[in-house]
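Please check the following.

. . .
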Amino acid sequence: MLEFQKKRKISQKLYSGITVIILVFVVVFLARASWDVFQKQKESEGDAKIVLERLNDLQNKEKTLRSQIEWLNTKTGTEEVIRQKFNVAKDGEKIVVIIDSDNKETTTPEKIEGSFLGDWLAQFTNLFR
């Protein structure tokens, strides 16, 4: 009978209002902590995808740069870069330089027609052409 009374006191204390309130607070606290961890996990997954994409981009760039370095280490690659940067040619070759006009219009002196000064100026400038 003594055992039964002890069990009854334990169950009364266990199911009392204060104990239930404390348990509700603990459950809410644990649920909120779990939710925060879940949110951080989702954020980390997104960050991991971004980092993997960046890693792939950098690996592709590394491959490109390595292939360019290998090409520059060849005789033809070095020669082409030197020709482009320093505008040089081999013996017997000629370099043609094409200059853009940049849409600049050439102006010619206007002819003053019908006057002695205009005719004389036109003949004078024709001497230098």
